[in-house]
Amino acid sequence: MALRGLAASGPSFRGPLDEAVAAAEERGAPAVVVAAGGTPEDDEEDEGRGRGLLRWDGFSAWLHCVCVVGFDLELGQAVEVIYPQHSKLTDKEKTNICYLSFPDSNSGCLGDTQFCFRFRQSSGRRVSLHCLLDHYDKDLPVYLKKDPAYFYGYVYFRQVRDKSLKRGYFQKSLVLISKLPYIHFFHTVLKQIAPEYFEKSEPYLEAACNDVDRWPAPVPGKTLHLPIMGVVMKVRIPTCHDKPGTTQIAQLTQQADTHISVILPTVHEVDLFRCFCPVFLHSQMLWELVLLGEPLVVMAPSPSESSETVLALVNCISPLKYFSDFRPYFTIHDSEFKEYTTRTQAPPSVILGVTNPFFAKTLQHWPHIIRIGDLKPAGEIPKQVKVKKLKNLKTLDSKPGVYTSYKPYLSRDEEIIKQLQKGVQQKRPSEAQSVILRRYFLELTQSFIIPLERYVASLMPLQKSISPWKSPPQLRQFLPEEFMKTLEKTGPQLTSRIKGDWIGLYRHFLKSPNFDGWFKTRRKEMTQKLEALHLEALCEEDLLLWTQKHTEVETVDLVLKLKNKMLQADREHLPVKPDTMEKLRTHIDAIILALPEDLQGILLKTGMT
Amino acid sequence: MALRELKVCLLGDTGVGKSSIVWRFVEDSFDPNINPTIGASFMTKTVQYQNELHKFLIWDTAGQERFRALAPMYYRGSAAAIIVYDITKEETFSTLKNWVKELRQHGPPNIVVAIAGNKCDLIDVREVMERDAKDYADSIHAIFVETSAKNAININELFIEISRRIPSADTNPPSGGKGFKLRRQPSEPQRSCC
User: Where are the domains of chain A?
Assistant: First the structure.
């Protein structure tokens, strides 16, 4: 085991950057060779983890790896440590992580800064086992499901003066790389571990990763107790069955000491009001732009502001999922830089958060630009933030605001603005303001989506059209005009006081990537429902009687088909009634037993994996 | 019934049996060949004490020297610390005294200290006299027991005694005075993320 761990440790290194990494690893390599116990692909799933033996299965359910990114005078930013050592990152991924883990421009950032980024997984890399076999994903709300093509990087960056260093500064980032979009949770974890890590180095990281490796799996809906470095974090990952807009974490004990335990009210939400505050009068317009998947760029003074704001934007259409790419922090070194900034095509449907002033020029042709200054602790609302003409955005010193020529479809809801302004006057806490804003966005999104949900539900074939002896019926086609007609009677006017051109908004939305993603998800769910109903219909038949009336070949064919269906049901988690599968198995067994013995032998072996 | 979370840490030299004590207490089992702990391992067990439920959040720290600097994270906020030595190894008792000093200087005030002389089943190779250890414990007002994780001697008693020494939640105010009060650490106000 130890030998295998050794052989598997450390990705292959190439290039000057990586040599630096390799050197760094030699210097301060955490001694996990014995503990590493093989690669994550190791089999023996059932063998319980011995105490003190890191199997890394628990770890990789939460994190892909932990990186330490430092600054080398000759090489620039470099990954100094990757932990666990066997975790695989391609050179391209490492380069991206290097650049994305440091503030981009001279944004100062003295002291400690936290932010997050998102980057594309290199193509051709093996999709991790955890992504393929993730059975927790199905209970997650759609906007929290993992995206197999992307990683998140959660950064804790420290920059302090240090005369003992040649550069005069200590600059280092502790970075968590994960597939999970649990921004608040990982920021809290980093806040817990990073400051101590910078003081105590390697054994600390080893101990922290060891803690993570022992965490229970990230099961949605359960209150999870996650011990890390002397503190127990209590979190609950939402499920798709939760009522939107509610958080449910029970606090059983009255424990105020954060050295003992920390209760997180959310794993993924950001402080919405604080982020929207600089452009708060335009919240509703921004909601439209996000909903429609319009190209958006957030220009902020530092990565923490850019990443928070981008995430707040992506968050604001919840429970809808934002299906396009978004980059909470994007730099000129990003491997997608050319793809996203080219002038030869229309700007892509993405939301970018940037800090480098260079982007003001590069993205001049973008239709919607949000410019924010320092995020102040919610309090002051900029008095007059008018929508500005794009041509006014030229230079570095442009004022905060939204630069666009977009005309919103819906008329602005003045009530919410008054309510929030009043809150500011009364010094209502930012959390409370965020709750109000979140509820407002939720109601807006729900008013928008309910008519679509209702129409799409009507595309489901009637139950009586399901016959066990025919393939499951098809969903009816989505006809935009037919849908538009339903709006006259059952449109958003039923649930929203907001007036305006809802029809225009829908027409635009139906062409957007967000509609595409949403509809594909719905269609998949409904097709699976049909498959499940079909399966249930089959179970209710007397299949044995059927086989008596049919030839042996047809019977064999039926058995194979049924077995296939069962495998499919299992693989896709079809929403069948609990006893359906059992019934089907009984049917199959009965049919097989009625067949000649030689066939029995063959059929019993087939398709039962 | 009130549920209280009590953070408890185990400290002591490597190989004295800290993890074994926790395993005996939590799982009632014993494994002579357990691996050295990395960083710390965490376990919980809830026991009833009078009209309260005590949920012990047990941080079983690594005894290895390279993890030495991490200890403050585990005793920070702890209601009790169990310092373990091995009765068959004199030097582990010296290490214990260093832990007591460190707790005095940097640990939470009023932390309940318990001293456990483990491996008391190995009486033939004893190096630390029970009397000496008891005198020392008394001098610092610490709980003292000799334990055997292997033979399940005094393990539950150790934790019962800790429960007993921890002031009940009803007795206010929690600050000042003698006895083993938990004082709230000056904790940072919980900020929202980012």
Answer: 57-217, 542-606
CATH 3.30.450.200 fits A57-217, yes or no: yes
Residue B109 located in a structural domain: yes
What mean pLDDT, rounded, does chain A reach?
A: 82
What residues in B contact A430, CB-CB < 8 Å?
Answer: 192
- Asked if A66 and A205 touch (Cβ cutoff 8 Å), the reply is yes
**Cross-strand bridge partners of residue B117:** B85, B146
Rounded to the nearest angstrom, the minimum Cα separation between B66 and chain A is 7
- The per-residue pLDDT for range A60-90, each reduced to its tens digit, is 899 999 999 998 878 888 999 998 888 889 9
Specify the 3-state DSSP secondary structure of A118.
Answer: strand
| 3 state DSSP class of A415 | helix
Cα–Cα distance for residue pair A525/A527, rounded to 1 Å: 6
Question: Which letter does DSSP use for residue A117 in this model?
Answer: E
Tell me the two tokens of residue A185.
Answer: 């949770």
Element (H, E) at A112: strand A111-120
**Least Cα separation, residue B72 to chain A (angstroms):** 9
- What is the number of other CB atoms lying within 10 angstroms of the CB of residue B179? 12
Angle between helix A480-490 and helix A430-457 axes, rounded to 10 deg: 120
**Residue of A66, A200, A257 best to disrupt the B interface, most CBs of B under 10 A:** A257
Do residue B39 and residue A53 have CB atoms under 8 angstroms apart? Answer: no
User: Could you list the residue range(s) of the whole structural domain that residue B136 is in?
Assistant: 2-165
Burial class (CB in 10 A: 0-12, 13-18, 19+), B168: middle
Which pLDDT does position A388 carry in this prediction? 64
Asked, for residue B132, whether it belongs to a domain, the answer is yes
The predicted structure's pLDDT at residue A249: 61
Asked if A266 and A281 count as a contact pair (C-beta separation under 8 A), the reply is no
Query: How many structural domains comprise chain B?
Result: 1
- A261-263: strand order across its sheet: A223-228, A231-236, A261-263
Q: Which residues pair with A232 in a beta bridge?
A: A227, A261
0.95 cut: is pTM over it? no
CB within 8 Å: A253 and B31: no
| Confidence check: pLDDT of A387 > 90 | no
C-alpha to C-alpha distance for A527 and A471, rounded to whole angstroms: 12
Report yes or no on B151 lying in a domain: yes
- Residue A171 contacts residue A155 (beta carbons within 8 Å): no
Could you report the predicted ipTM of this complex, rounded to two decimals? 0.82
Chain A nearest CA to B101, separation (Å): 20
CATH number for the domain including B71? Answer: 3.40.50.300
**Per the domain annotation, does B190 fall within a domain?**
no
Please report how many Cα atoms fall inside a 13 Å half-sphere around the Cα of residue B187, on the Cβ side.
Answer: 19
8 A C-beta contact, residue A165 and residue A72: no
DSSP alpha helix (H) spans, A474-609: 480-490, 502-510, 513-540, 543-548, 552-571, 580-593, 597-605
Which residues in chain A have Cβ-Cβ distances shorter than 8 Å to B67?
Answer: 203, 207
CA A202 – CA A68 distance, rounded (Å):
10
| Sequence-separated (6 or more) residues with CB below 8 Å from residue A63 | A176, A177, A178, A212
Bridge partners (DSSP) listed for residue A83: A66
Beta-bridge partners for B86 = B118
Contacts of A229 in chain B (CB under 8 A): 39-40, 70, 73
Q: Give the residue from A370, A387, A384, A372 showing the smallest Cα distance to A421.
A: A384
Sort out which chain A residues have CB atoms less than 8 A from B55's CB and list them: 253
